Amino acid sequence: MLELLRRFKTRPGLSAELVAASLFANMLALATPLFVIQVLNRYIAHGVDATLATLTIGAVIAVILEYGFRQVRLRLARGLSAGSDKQAAIAGFAVLVQAKAVAVERIPPGQRREIVAGATAIETAYGPNNICTVLDLPFSFLFVFVLYLLHPILAGVAFLFIAVVFAAGTLNAAMLRGKMQDLVTATNTGGALIGTAVSELDTVRAFNAAGFLRQAWETQTRWIQGLRQRIAAKQGWVQTFTQSVTAMMSITVVAVGALLVVSGEMDVGAMIGANILAARALQPISRFAALGEAFVKARQSLELLREFAKLPLEAETGSAKSEYQGGLEMRDVAFAFPGGSAPLFETLSLTLPPGSVLVVAGSNGTGKTTLARLMVGLLEPSRGQILADGLDLRQVAPEWWRRQVIYLPQEPAFFNATIEENLRMINPDIDGQNLNRVIDAAGLRRFLDESEGGFETQITNNGRNLALGIRRRLALSRALASDGMLAVLDEPTEGLDVDGVAAVGAAIRDLAGRGRTIIVFSHDKNFLKGAQAVIDLNVKPVPRVSTAPRKVKPEADAPQQEGAVE
Q1: What is the CATH number of the domain that holds 278?
Q2: Pairing between strand 517-521 and 486-490?
Q3: How far apart are CA 278 and CA 282, in angstroms?
Q4: pLDDT in tens, 474-532
Q5: Residue 10 lies in a domain
Q6: How many domains are there within the chain?
Q7: pTM confidence score
Q8: Which among 276, 286, 279 is positioned nearest to 32, based on CA atoms?
Q9: What is the layout of strands, in order, in the sheet containing 517-521?
C-alpha cells in the first residue's frame, strides 16, 4: 500500500482526478437502492405510472453515468501506473547489466532472474483494476452513512460485517508473506534444475545424471506444489469466508430490518434498500480481501528490487586518454574474494611498457582468470592499484577502457544477435574490410562461408550450441575487432585444433608486430617463448615475477600444445 501511496504522490493532478471520478461513480451507485426504496414506497403504494417512469429513467441515467465515470477512472488508473511499471521493469534490468560484476555474482542466477521478473508481479498488483478497488474502499463508509440515515442499527450491523471481512483479508495477507518467500526460494531452485537440464544435454546423458536430476525435480515439484496448494487454500478460504459473511450479513440485515418494520420504525422499501446498500458497502472490502496474494508478491518483489538497486554500479563517466599507448602497471595488487579466508594473491607489482609481452602462468585455480578480469576492469583489487598509462583503472571511464582492450575470455559467451552485431558490439564503427580481416585472422572464413546467412547468421543460446573451437575462434574475432592497444588473452588456445592454435599464434605475432602490449594467461609452457616478463601464480601468496622467461613450478595438468609463439 505504501507503493500505491507513493504513486499517488508522484502524480497529484491525476490522483485528484481519480478521486473525483471515484466520488462521482460511488455517489451515482446510490441510485439503485434509492430507486428500489422509492418504487416500493411511492409507486406500489399509489400506482402512479408517471412516478414509475420518472424513477426508472432517472435510475437508468444514473447507471449509465456511473459506468462512464468508472471507465474514465480505469483510463486514469492506467496512466497512474504506466510510468512506475515501466520504471520498475527497466530499473531491475539496468542494475543487472550495469552493476559491478563482483557485486552481482554474490546473488544466485535464479534470484537475479526472479528480481528482474518481479516487475510483472508489481505491474499486476498495481494494475488499474486493483487501483480502482483500493479507491472504492473509503466509499464503503458512504453506503454505511446512508444506511445510518435509514436506521443506525442497520448501519452498525453492516459495519460489523465489513470489519470482519477486512480483518480476515489483512490476517491472510500477513500469513501469506512467509509462504510467498518460500515459494520464491523454491522457484529459484527449480529454475536452476531446468537450466541444467536445458543447457547441459550431453553432460546429463553422458554421466547418467537423468535419474539424479529427475529425483531432485520430483522433490522440488512436491515442495513447490505443496506451497502453492497451501497458498491457494488460504486464498480460497478468504473467498469462501467472504461469500459466507456476505450471505450472513444479508440475512442479518433483512432479519433486523423485518423487526424494525414490524415495530413501525422502518418501512418495507427501506428494509430492502438497506440490504442493497449493505451489499454495496461490503463489495469493495471483499474485492480487496481477495488481493492479498497479489499485494504480498508485489511487496516482496519491490523489496528485492530495492535491495538490488543498492548494488554499486559501474561508473558512467571517468578519466580517459585521447590516445592510450598500451602501458600497464600493477602496484602492490592483492585480491581476495568476499568471505575468502586468504587472498588469492597479494603484493603483485610489475610495470609493462607499451609493446611488452607478459605471460601469466599457473595451475588451475591459481587466479589467472581473476587477474585477467582485474586488468579488464571487471573486478577491483582488494588492495593496490592497476594503472593504464598512469591512470588508475578505478578512475577511468569503463566504456572507454574496454574499447582499449583486446579481450579473449576463457569461457566466451555471445549475445543472441547476428555474428556481425556481436563483432560490432565493442567497436560499432568497424568497417566491412576490418570485419573480414578479423574473421580471416581467426580462421573463421570457411565457417562464415558455409553459414546460410554469413555475417547475418543468428547466434542462439548465447553461442553454447556452437562447437567449442568455433566459439573460441569467434571470440578471438570479437576481441580483435576492438583493435585496442592492450591484448588480454585468457587461455587463448584452449579447445582449439592445430589450425586454431596456429591462427592464435599468427594473431599474437601480428599484434606484437603492431606494437600492442600482450598479456597471455596460460599454463601452456610454449607461451613462455618470447615473453619479456612472466608472473608465476603457482607461488603463493606473493606471485613470482621475472623479467625473462624462466622455468615455472611443475604442473601435472598442463597440456602440451603445438603452435608456440616465437
Answers
A1: 1.20.1560.10
A2: parallel
A3: 6
A4: 999 999 999 999 999 999 988 888 988 899 989 999 999 999 999 999 877 778 777 88
A5: yes
A6: 2
A7: 0.71
A8: 276
A9: 405-408, 486-490, 517-521, 357-361, 533-536, 544-546
